[in-house]
Amino acid sequence: MNIVDRRANPKGKSLGNRRRFIERARAEVKGAVLDALRKRKITDVEGSERVSIPTRGIDEPSFRQSSSGGKRHYIVPGNKEHVVGDEIERPQGGQGRGSEAADSGEGTDGFEFTLSKEEFLDLFFEDLELPDLVKKKLSEAAAPELSRAGYSVSGNPANLNLVRTMRNSMARRLSMKRPKREELQELEQKIESLESEGPEAEHREALERLEKLRRRSRAIPYFDPIDTRYNRFERIPKPNVQAVMFCLMDVSGSMTERMKDLAKRFFMLLHIFLARRYKQVDLVFIRHTSTAQEVDEETFFYSRETGGTVVSTALAEMKRIIHERYPLDAWNIYAAQASDGDNFGADSGRCIALLSDILPVCQYFAYIEVSESPDGLGDRRMDKTDLWRSYAEVAPAHPNFAMRRVGDPSHIFPVFHDLFSRGKAPAA
Amino acid sequence: MAAILDAPVLLYDGPEWDFDKLKRVHDAIELIARRELGLDVYPTQIEVITSEQMLDAYASSALPLMYRHWSFGKRFAYNEALYRRGLQGLAYEIVINSNPCLCYIMEENSMTMQTLVIAHAAYGHNHFFKNNYLFQQWTDASGILDYLSFSRDYVLKAEERYGIARVESVLDAAHALMDESVNRYTRRKPLNFADDRKREQERRLHAETTYNDLWRTVPAPEVIRSLEAEEIARIQREQNQRLGLPEENILYFMEKFAPNLEEWERELCRIVRNIAQYFYPQKQTKVINEGCATFVHYEIMNRLHGKGLISDGSMLEFLHSHTSVVFQPDFDDPRYSGINPYALGFAMMEDIKRICLAPTPEDRIFFPQFAGNKDPYGTLRDAWANYRDESFILQFLSPNVIRKHRLFRVFDNAAEPNMLVDAIHDEGGYREIRSALARSYDISRREPDIQIADVDMAGDRTLVLKHFVHDGILLDEKSCQAVLRYVAELWTYTVKLLEVDASTEAVLKKHEVPAQKRRGV
Prior knowledge:
The complex is a heterodimer.
Chain A (H helix, E strand, L loop, with lengths): L1 E4 L9 H10 L1 H14 L9 E6 L16 E6 L10 E2 L21 E6 L1 H8 L17 E11 L9 H14 L5 H17 L2 H20 L10 E10 L2 E9 L6 H21 L2 E9 L3 E4 L1 H6 L8 H15 L6 E8 L8 H11 L5 E7 L15 H9 L6 E6 L2 H12 L8
Parallel strand pairs in A: 8-9, 8-11, 11-12, 12-13
Antiparallel strand pairs in A: 2-5, 6-7, 9-10
Helix pairs in contact in A: 5-6, 7-12, 9-10, 10-11
Chain B lengths: L1 H5 L12 H18 L7 E6 L1 H9 L10 H15 L8 E4 L4 E6 L4 H21 L1 H6 L5 H19 L1 H13 L16 H17 L11 H5 L3 H15 L6 H8 L5 H22 L1 H21 L5 H14 L15 H17 L3 H6 L9 H11 L2 H8 L2 H7 L2 E6 L5 E5 L6 H11 L2 H4 L2 E7 L7 E7 L7 H15 L3 E7 L5 E7 L8
Parallel strand pairs in B: 1-3, 7-8
Antiparallel strand pairs in B: 2-3, 4-5, 6-7, 8-9
Helix pairs in contact in B: 2-5, 2-14, 3-4, 5-14, 7-8, 7-9, 7-13, 8-13, 8-23, 12-13, 14-15, 14-16, 16-18, 19-21
């Protein structure tokens, strides 16, 4: 008999099978993922997801007898009152058959399982890509970064690698038989006891031995410069991996909670998306009425302001912040602006001028116009808004500028998907 | 002093287990199993695994190695979801019919559970695997692990060479036909998996050096048209003989005769059908196999307790899980989901023991061969070795067990509005119930009887399958169509399935699927 402990065996033996399964059911799983997202709260978008998919496509059929028709005998336990000749009503679903093939998925409408966060987001962003990443020289700008590169025999004391050094020292001491401290102490004690009562010859011999050991100990140092090892670092140019995302929103009275919620969903998506591509993503929230100010997230989404609407103030604020805090060679800049399209009439010209300054330094600028009616995208019912008209003038010259209208939470993802879909130039 | 020396020492105390305790317990169990119950087992190898590894094992039909396929991932995801939500506990153990016999036990089990599991799997199931005639005839316990690793590597290589999609499409089709791809009746010498690898290479060599004459010898259509009907029938007969028709093993037929499969595709069919064959005995011995293991663990645990080797607390813990294992809900209970094979098997074996030791006059009438023979373990060992579910129930289901479970028979005729109770646990009903229950475990009744009947070699190569219908029970329409599409993928020409009455040969229903294109080809 053998007892083997297999607990330490590599995990995830069936990971390959799982991947194949998800691949197989891709279309269904994806549909379920998008469905799930629509129903979800924005705040837990990043969690894992339990999805339920139809069995179609992942069905494993086999020849089976039909569950109805023909003549059958069932043997069932637990007779209480029946005698021969009793008639029993036929139960729905053939009770006497027992439940066979529970995992074949037959009889259940959906097949439910849990996707990990990674799997979920992978599917979610499957065919999306950051726009214009290579076109911009900004994204290629490389900042050198220190990176570990093994050990060296010389270096700064601050970089001394203690473990390595001690290991070398110990190996050297062992191989050269440097006397241990305990050994010396033991000998000294022995000499002490011999001094008073031991035989003379033995005492002398011990003293000689002690002298020899001490000499050896002095000759072979505890630490030697050849033991020392230092951590070595190299400067490796790293591509720019930080991004800043500007959220611009109109918070004037005309923006309802619902419209803000729509905007928030879009910002949320953009943030998750960027967070997957960049090591670090800074968020800057700029809200505006007739004046603009930078605020924290809480204030941005939940406090209400009154006043007119002058969009250019927000753009000017953004320009100022970029200038002050986000040098172009270190940051990728993204911006998303949400508004209901209202703007102070005379402000349009200034907006266009500011945009023409901002757009060249941005990786991407998305303008989302939210509207109150769930069905209407605005443009069917009325003329285009002021802001839309003025932005539309700028759009053609800048491929990294996109504008869309959103009227319902269910539009958010399609619009987002549309903006970032792979190999598709954004256009108004 | 003598009293202290003689006082038994507990093998373990408390719920925690460690490897020393496992070893001690195993040795004590082995002593009882071999000396007192007379069990004969393969050497055992006990492997401790985590719950995640247990889920892994579930996914691949409890086999330790398996080729990759999405359906295993599906099964894993399904079980994992149930487990995580607490809807389903995991099995305490998994045991594999191999030599040495592998027993997986979970690290979460308490020491009492480990003891139970070792008795149940390492001795109960193990004895059954080694001695039952079906396993001896059909499976090669010492070669299965090697064969699995061969098949995994083969599938992997095929995937590298021909792409995952093409391999997957063959495996999908083969999996759908698994149940119809075992040899049921012909007696063959036991499989030897070790030689299989060699044979695979030889087969390929052989195929390369010879030419399949089969298709060439078929007369041209114009020749056939000019022949008499009698002559055509003769040619057809000869050809069917050459093809070995009728053939019950569908994948075997595909492997040998499908016109457009490549060698590696035939080998995949072969792998799947070999694995199906390996599981075939297990499908036929659920009640007797689980009954054997449950009976053995019950005996062993009682004896351990009787000898004072395990504490009263452990015994109570054991009894708690034992009773839930052999619990049989009544038919009107919401928990009812068919007859529990553990409960039925255990009850029957306990009753056999009783009949051997203290028979009633009724038992002497029903079981004259062994009633009162005072050799319960010998009688049971004989039953374990020589019966499968169907024959075991037919031979050994006693009136006492029927009464205890209050079994009754319901006749369901689709032509009548209601079902009819036509036998209950009384004098007139015992034999009726016994034979009906036995028949319900007969695999040839549980699963549809489907055979390859004919191939239109001279014409459009249509493959004809026949389903022999018993008691008017037809095939499930939807799944039948889906499986036929898979058959057509492998055959690459039209496939027909006729549902014919088993006794009159009257055709009840026809299915037809045109030639299918396989994914990835």
